[in-house]
Amino acid sequence: MNDRSDSLDLPEKSDTDLLKTRQFIQDDIVGLLLADRRSENTRRAYAADLNDFFRFAFRVLPTPEGVRRFLSLTAAEMTALLFRYKAHLMERGLAEATVNRRLAAIKSLVRFARRLGLTDVVLEGRIVGERVRPYRDTTGVDGVTARELVSSIDTTTLVGKRDTVLMLLLLENALRRAEIVALRVGDYDAVSGTLSITGKGRGTQKECIRLSARLQEALRTYLEASGHGGSDSAPLLISLSNCRRGQALTADGVYKIVRTRAKACGIGKPVSPHRLRHTAITLALDLSKGDIRRVQRLSRHARLETLQVYDDNRQDLQGEISDMLSRYLSDEASSKSV
């Protein structure tokens, strides 16, 4: 049997072609890195973080020349530069999570360049990020206020019908803003009463969630009134403003609707879509008597430890222990040693 490779007529690349390919990669490595990211939000964040770093390091945006200059540094030079950049970020008073994200963007650039053969530097282990405790503040609104946010909406108008669907997606299903604005009409299956969502960190893979009978009815009346329910590719929630009518509701639009509805209910503290997600998760823990595993199906957190923070905050365990100590220390009868 002949070797399969002998029967293939593969064109050989000349040295000139290889040089052109390498030049193209060098000239657009940042563009290639961003294209390798699935999420538009991730691409936007990486671009902003890399812009900030190159402004600090070379006083310019990440031009091809600037990127080549950075990648030509030795491991020691890169590490020293990143230590200076990290100190600069902390002097600016940026949050630990922001510092870590910007360092991660640079490490990703170097790692990507190494895969392409443009550098041999390995930054992992050379510079570490700041320790961050996730979800320290998981507060939302209380259950009574959550009910009022939904019941106060005038559902006789198209805006009210849409906003009811939005509020129920946030409060009954704990969806994130990005998940909501990515929804299309075809993601809703009226027969099974389910919705396919693109979860955080899942790329293009969708997961199916079941909607309550109340939300199914709200969706039916909204799509019937809006008239766009027959197009599977149409955005599920649309803008109803004069300038963007019929276009997909944006993340900023979702934020403004939530803020406006909260203000109308007389809620004094700032309320955001993520605060309502916190509300849904905390209420679910209350109603399920702290059943973290069941609530994880709602929140879709990858780690149970994240939900443990919600549960601890909900129960105010630290406050209970502090009160216990206070009662002991203020009780003369208990002044005996324990």
UniProtKB/TrEMBL annotation:
Residue ranges occupied by any Tyr recombinase domain in the UniProt entry: 134-323
PROSITE patterns: CB, TYR_RECOMBINASE
Biological processes, Gene Ontology terms: DNA integration; DNA recombination
Protein name: Site-specific recombinase XerD
PANTHER family recorded: PHAGE INTEGRASE-RELATED, PROPHAGE INTEGRASE INTD-RELATED
Source species taxonomy: Bacteria, Bacillati, Armatimonadota, Chthonomonadia, Chthonomonadales
Organism of provenance: Chthonomonas calidirosea (strain DSM 23976 / ICMP 18418 / T49)
Source superkingdom: Bacteria
GO molecular function, one term: DNA binding
Key words, A-Z: DNA integration, DNA recombination, DNA-binding
Residue intervals of the Core-binding (CB) domain: 13-114
Family: Belongs to the 'phage' integrase family.
